[in-house]
Amino acid sequence: MAYSELIKSFEKIRDYMREFYVYGFKSREDYTKKSARSYDDERRRIESWLGGYMAFRHTAEGKNVFISVDNRSVPFNPLHSAWKAKSFTDKDIVLHFCLIDLLSGGEALGVPQLADGVASLLANTDAPFEIDESTIRKKLKEYTDLGVFRAEKQGRSLVYSLAEDGVDLGPWREAAAFFSEEAPFGVVGSYLIDRMDEAPEFFSYKHHYLLHTLDTQVLCDALCAMKEKRCVDIVNFSVRHDKEHEHRVYPLRFYISTQTGREYLLGYHYKFRKPMFFRLDTVRSITAGPVEPHWEKYEGFADKFDENLWGVSTGGDYCIDHVELTLRVEDGEGYILDRLEREKRHGRIEAIDEHTYRFVADVYDAGELLTWARSFIGRVIRFESDNKFAVDRFYGDVRRMAGMYGGGEEA
Amino acid sequence: MIFSEVYGSYFKAVSAILAKAVEGTLTEKELTRTVLANAFGESLITIPAKLTDGSWPLLTEGFGTPLRHAPHAPLTTLEKQWLKALLLDPRIRLFDPSEEGLEDVEPLFTPDQFVYFDRYADGDDFTDPRYIEHFRLIIRAMHEKRKLRVRFHGHRGTRQSYICIPYKLEYSSKDDKFRLITGFRNKPLTVNLSRIDSVHILEPWDESEYLQPREREKTLVMELYDSRNALERAMLHFSDLEKETERIDEKHYRITLNYKQGDETEILIRILSFGPVLKVIEPETMVKQIRERLAKQTALIGKENT
């Protein structure tokens, strides 16, 4: 098939964009195990969509292609472009504009009238362009489902009109620009911005992660099931096992990290009989299953479960680890206390004396707190937990780091 | 359906072309310009050809069209549902959009379905009427290209007042805060919106005055040892910054990051949080700070064990 910059399926491009964006050090050979042509086509497409955001570097291993964005300087997520590259047939685009034109007069029309109308609009074209009634019917149904057209019974047949559009996008301009970057389903905001003459570019974003837009379809599929209180079948790709696994869960909530951009679905796993997290970027597909009659019971779990979650790890055994982090805070370092207050997600802070403060919490996995504890290096008097592995790792890491930077044990 | 050609750049470009054809203002040059403005890099090869070779018979000779109306598709249900969902977000009060046309629409999602588990707890109060007023005045000044007098209290409580050009409103999802990015006497100035006491709109600024002072950028080089899934974690964690990664060997990678000088302490903390899998090579000032912190830490542990 001839190359086109448009794509039929999003799944393949999702992987390539992720690789180009996240890693950026891979050469053509790293991608071409399956197909060199496929790599060349996908790279060319992404270059076409992202233009100036694509960068190149020549190394001994070959040419590296990567997506280079200073997230803080872009008013809109450039990766949204991928969602705007869906392929279509000649009939799709011609019918789109003809049907909208025929219904723009405000009159409700039936299929025969619309078929005549389309034929009439295309009558004076040089090349013959025939569209049968069944194609028109399918397109009318599709657009009615999308909410663009409204179908009404008139006698025994259906008539179609443009759906009512009482939304004035003018007052939404700034909100759409901001939330296209900061709300779930931001790409929908991007679609709305495309409808505007111009969008404000005076918002910028710090700690801004762009990659999650590529997972919008799985987010959408899970959310649709959640609305209908349905369980879902998840096909998840395990990086560790390099293999796909299927899971049936009752979807509960989405957990979003503002510090890494990672997004997770929390679901109750029927087979393992416990809540589990699934990273959306490793989920290949989500299919809605039957309605869960005991949905209230599972949703009740979610609040209780959250009480001891530090991040998204439940440890190996879902047991609770007790953690205590004792810090030295010198005079004039009130900002350390501010940090503790704003960054602690659970637990409490105890003042031991004027210069010593202790953070105490009970969490599923003390190991998850290590990242945070290490950020206080230089002030940690004690890191204690009944999770011995986490304690050993903390002190071991400090020793290795001291060695790395000149003194003691080397990494 | 999220992935649909209805939202696609090709439909957007052709819609803009047909609007001009209906209006009678379409020319070959205008067609090219419209494709470049609305579609992708290589779309210029496809769209004009399809419109003129009969594949998409929507243009007639002389850049006319058989269509009678400028194309206007109503909002889809998905678009309306997304807008409706925004009305439930506390930050929407800053904008005050109209609910008109969305009365009977179900929100696409609700806030309780999303948990931002590592967001800091001292975010801005988006319901504070004074905060909302300041936010809207800043937006208005940006639209009208006018200067502002901003009075605010600094970190140590000192009151400050500046006449400035507002360049950007910066939001951090991690901090849940807005900052006004501006400048004073050719130096960058960043003011947390929650610290602002008053905002007054002043006269329009002149184009010659609009030179946003840039905060000094610094470059950091670090080496990553890929253990404990460190490569993937670091690549994602630092993906909010402009970076380049090179593979040294199977397990070692060199990462070059660009960051703003004012963020140095934050970057240092982020690097420390990774533990021994990341080692800063440059700049020396940061290496020195890490050494100092580690020396303090080693001393604290030693003291504790004696």
CATH architecture of the largest domain in chain A: Roll
- Report the uncertain regions of chain B: none
Give the distance, in angstroms, between the N- and C-terminal Cα atoms of chain B. Answer: 65 Å
Q: What is the molecular shape of chain A?
A: elongated
- Helical amount among residues of chain B, as a percent range? 25-40%
How many domains is the backbone of chain A divided into? 4
* CATH fold call of the largest domain in chain B: Alpha-Beta Plaits
What sort of overall outline of chain B do the alpha carbons produce when their principal axes are compared? extended
The count of strands of chain B amounts to: 11
Low-confidence stretches of chain A: none
Mean pLDDT of chain B: 93
Provide the structure class of chain B.
Answer: alpha+beta
> Which strand order do you get reading across the main beta sheet of chain A?
10-9-8-7-11
Compressed to H and E, one letter per element, the order of chain B equals HHHHEHEEEEEEEHEEHEH
Round the mean pLDDT of chain A to the nearest integer and report it.
91
Oligomer: heterodimer
Report on the structure:
The complex is a heterodimer of chains A (411) and B (306). By secondary structure, chain A is of the alpha+beta class. Chain A is 36% helix and 25% strand. Chain B is 33% helix and 24% strand. Chain B has a 4-stranded antiparallel β-sheet, covered by helices on one side. In chain B, helix 1 runs antiparallel to helix 2 and helix 2 crosses helix 3. The N and C termini of chain B lie far apart (65 Å). Chains A and B meet through helix 1, helix 3, helix 4, helix 7 and helix 8 of A and helix 1, helix 3, helix 4, strand 1 and helix 5 of B.
